Amino acid sequence: MIKFSAEIQGVEVLNRSFNRIEQYISDFRSVWPAVAKTFYEIEREQFNTEGATGASGKWSALSPAYKKWKEAHFPGQPILQAIHALVSSMTSPDANDSVFRADPMMLTIGTKREGATHHQRTRPIISLRDDQKRKLQKSLQSGLVQFTRTLGFQVDEKAA
Asked: What is the value of pTM for the model shown?
């Protein structure tokens, strides 16, 4: 069985399994781009809605003092997006501070942006609802089906 899981600071937030394929596939690098694309779409929604689309709900408001300071220095910028460095690193593999490593059996996506760990505790950057977890699983499954088809196997449409 192949396990598809995600951890945030050592806490498992996603755990899905696929049966009977581990004997045939030992390198998932061809399917990671589809999974990453889905992850980045989910993260864009999370930032665009200030957390409202995540399982943890809308991020807490800024303190009055910080809100006043931020409005003076970064007018009109949403929560966690003063200079867009964090959102960029969480929505693109090419951004500064982005972490993206596609290994044969593991995909690592995240940010090395200072303060991200604190934000994850107070205003969760990654907060997956069940339907978002299924969407990630589906992107992996679709990638596996496409990979299998390129090898010449017939795959039922229901599998994707």
From this structure: 0.84
